[in-house]
Design a protein that fits this description.
about 475 residues; mainly alpha; Growth Hormone, Chain: A; 18 helices
């Protein structure tokens, strides 16, 4: 179905495209936050342990991370509109399967199908915005997309708790189906028809075959390292095999005429530093999101529902700040915003280091608000600078790499936070501390480690991305010459 001609030529048409992309961003974020609330219920419903039910989330993350770059590259060759539209269909179908399954393996398999659809959406979202929205409004558009994600993340815990309590866990998956139908229809009508990338007509299947297991192993290493020990035989073997796959992948890409990933992109300082800081920013945020619920339940003895409400302030702060930051980036450049955003998030993590067994509510709320606001300020200009620094025909694979970096950051944040807490708790519990005292000291170590990640990202923003403010100009020059 072709784009409506009158709509296509309407003034401000690109904002309809942004709205369509926001539907996918909202749906994926809503599903991510709802599933976390449902974990205890799923464990009880399927009569499995928490170690088993964790795979409902792990399988989704593994599939999503391993597919993002592959599908981003493939969308450049086939067409982003087709990929985005089909992504809605697959995600909706996978959600329906999740709601009807009766065994845990089938639920995990359905979640992998969901991840395939989500990867097709995420790998294309920023690329579509970049290719359609003028450079003068690109930051604002990416900020709006970030706000849509923040809304989904914010309302997910509350909506999930109400749905599970009133109707059961299956409806949390069924709720995605009408959203997917709306997204499919709007994508068919509104998204512009794009041409496949004629410069890379052949897809690098061997490169994908080597790259996918490397990413899967990398996620498994960060997911399991803190549980079984970083120097355990399991982790050492996984690390060795992942290095072998990645080395073979690099050799393949250097010799391939149509590589899946053009490594020349990483010679661009803005592109490389933006992906590194994006990874570190999500490591900081998800490290906080991982540790804080345990602190609120174990130390302050708050109910799970109240903990969920408290944690929404992170997403709400992101939602409020993302559009403002995106709009400011269009007028004042990106360097100041990305630097200040990471500094603010780091300050929030520092506040959380001060937590005790009787911390006032305004203290930990301040820390969470600063973390969310900082990420909201950082993300839109960082995404804009990264996507504006590369040639347009590589926007799909660049968007896939950017999303992959954030997905890896999620796993790293949880792994690092968990490793630091568990290691510190083992040491402090051997000393003559009470259980609560050992836990509090261990939380301090975990939040301190997360703060270091934020400080590293802040320094990279200040000193590494010197040319980020000129990316829109560079992109305009490239378009005019081609």
């Amino acid at each position: 179905m072709s784009t409506n001609a009158s709509l296509h030529h309407r003034k401000g048409y690109y904002w309809f495209v942004v709205g369509t992309v926001c539907i996918g961003a909202f749906m994926a974020a809503l599903d991510a936050s709802i599933i976390n609330v449902a974990m205890p219920t799923l464990s009880k419903s399927f009569a499995v342990s928490m170690n088993s039910v964790e795979w409902v989330s792990i399988a989704y993350l593994l599939a999503l991370t391993s597919l993002l770059t592959l599908l981003g590259s493939l969308s450049d060759r086939i067409g982003r509109k087709k990929f985005y539209t089909v992504g809605f269909v697959i995600f909706g179908f996978g959600s329906g399967l999740c709601g009807v399954v009766s065994t845990m393996p089938l639920l995990i398999g359905s979640r992998v199908l969901q991840a395939l659809g989500a990867a097709m959406l995420q790998a294309n979202s920023i690329a579509i915005i970049t290719s359609v929205v003028p450079s003068t409004s690109r930051g604002k558009a990416i900020g709006i997309q970030g706000a849509a994600q923040a809304i989904g993340l914010s309302i997910g815990p509350t909506v999930g708790g109400l749905i599970i309590g009133s109707f059961g866990w299956r409806l949390i998956f069924y709720i995605n189906i009408p959203i997917a139908i709306i997204g499919t229809i709007t994508a068919s009508f509104i998204l512009p028809k794009d041409q496949p990338n004629l410069h890379s007509s052949r897809f690098d299947y061997l490169g994908a075959l080597l790259f996918t297991p490397f990413l899967i192993l990398l996620v498994l290493i960060f997911k399991n390292g803190y549980k079984v020990g970083w120097l355990s035989p399991e982790i050492l073997v996984e690390s060795l095999v992942s290095i072998i796959f990645f080395s073979l992948f690099i050799l393949r890409e250097k010799k391939c005429k149509n590589p899946m990933i053009d490594f020349h992109l990483f010679k661009n300082r803005t592109f490389t530093s933006g992906n590194i800081t994006g990874l570190l920013s999500y490591s900081l945020m998800f490290g906080v999101l991982f540790l804080m619920p345990f602190y609120l339940e174990w130390i302050l003895q708050l109910s799970p529902f109240l903990v969920g409400l408290i944690m929404t302030v992170v997403s709400l702060a992101m939602f409020i700040m993302s559009p403002f930051s995106g709009a400011l980036a269009d007028h004042m450049g990106t360097k100041l915003l990305t630097s200040s955003g990471m500094i603010i998030s780091s300050l929030g993590a520092i506040v959380l280091i001060l937590l005790s067994n009787n911390t006032a509510a305004y203290v930990y709320l301040l820390g969470l608000v600063l973390v969310g606001a900082g990420i909201g300020i950082f993300t839109p200009p960082n995404n804009s600078s990264v996507m504006g620094s590369i040639p347009p025909e590589h926007a799909g694979v660049a968007g896939g790499i950017l999303n992959m970096s954030r997905s890896l950051g999620m796993s790293m944040g949880v792994a690092i936070a968990g490793t630091l807490y568990d290691g510190a708790f083992s040491d402090y519990s051997l000393v003559h501390h009470t259980l609560a005292k050992a836990q509090i000291l261990s939380f301090h170590v975990g939040f301190a480690g997360i703060t270091i990640l934020g400080i590293i990202a802040s320094l990279i923003c200040v000193f590494a991305a010197k040319h980020s403010d000129n990316t829109s100009v560079e992109l305009n020059k490239y378009i005019s010459l081609h």
